[in-house]
Design brief:
Blueprint lengths: L4 E4 L6 E3 L3 H12 L6 H10 L7 H8 L8 H15 E3 L3 H8 L4 E6 L3 H10 L8 E4 L10 H11 L6 E5 L2 H10 L3 E6 L12 E4 L3 H10 L2
Parallel strand pairs: 1-4, 1-6, 4-5, 6-7, 7-8
Antiparallel strand pairs: 2-3
Length: about 220
């Protein structure tokens, strides 16, 4: 079946951090005087709150049982500010998405709390770059749950088999898309996940804008 739609992940796919995320987290923690939080612990808590409205429940989870007077909301706000300061859009992605929407239904499906992810889109000036932009904080399930990908295809009014999904994370993006019946395309980059055998195609992130149109036309 000819592809008629393409969906994208946001973080590390279209939104690129200029500083290491562990450093960003440490800076946010230090700014409010909170106890140290590892990146690994944050990711585990994040995974438990994919359908939250804000990051406050994530940090409440991480601060539970620890001796601190730091408010979870204050830490969530600090982290949101640090992330906004550190993220930049993938080079050339805005005009690329504008061109892509003339040929395909283009969507975004990003894991994370509603406020945090919507704030990223606004900061990156990508809010209007998609036909549909879904944040799992507004859904009943997050990636890799097939229900999240179905929400995307339903919103785009397409079937899974005619939709490609572009992302970097092996479990959430590649395995999730494949299990939901979409064609998974993995972006790769230095320090990122290794190329997954489950991906239909691997594209270096810096070449995404130049190579993706050719890849899409091959299906």
């Amino acid at each position: 079946m000819t592809l008629t739609a393409v969906g994208f992940d946001l973080d590390e796919t279209l939104a690129i951090p200029t500083r290491d995320r562990a450093t960003i987290l440490a800076e946010a923690v230090a700014s409010v005087g909170a106890p140290q939080i590892t990146r690994e612990a944050y990711l585990e808590a994040h995974g438990r709150h994919l359908t939250s409205e804000t990051r406050t429940p994530i940090f409440a989870d991480l601060l539970a049982g620890r001796e601190t007077d730091v408010d979870a909301k204050a830490l969530a706000d600090a982290y949101r500010r640090e992330i906004a300061d550190a993220l930049v859009p993938l080079n050339g992605i805005k005009p690329f998405l504008q061109t892509l929407t003339t040929e395909y239904n283009v969507g975004l499906l990003t894991n994370g709390p509603q406020l945090a992810q919507r704030h990223k889109l606004q900061t990156l000036s990508l809010t209007q770059s998609f036909d549909v932009a879904l944040v799992t904080g507004e859904l009943s399930a997050g990636k890799p749950d097939p229900a999240a990908f179905k929400a995307l295809t339903d919103a785009l009014n397409v079937t899974a088999s005619e939709t490609a999904y572009v992302g970097d994370d092996i479990d959430a993006d590649i395995m999730g898309a494949a299990n939901a019946g979409l064609i998974p395309i993995q972006v790769t980059y230095d320090g990122g996940p290794a190329p997954a055998s489950e991906a239909a195609v691997h594209i270096p992130r810096q070449k995404l804008c130049s190579r993706l149109p050719t890849v899409l036309k091959e299906y």
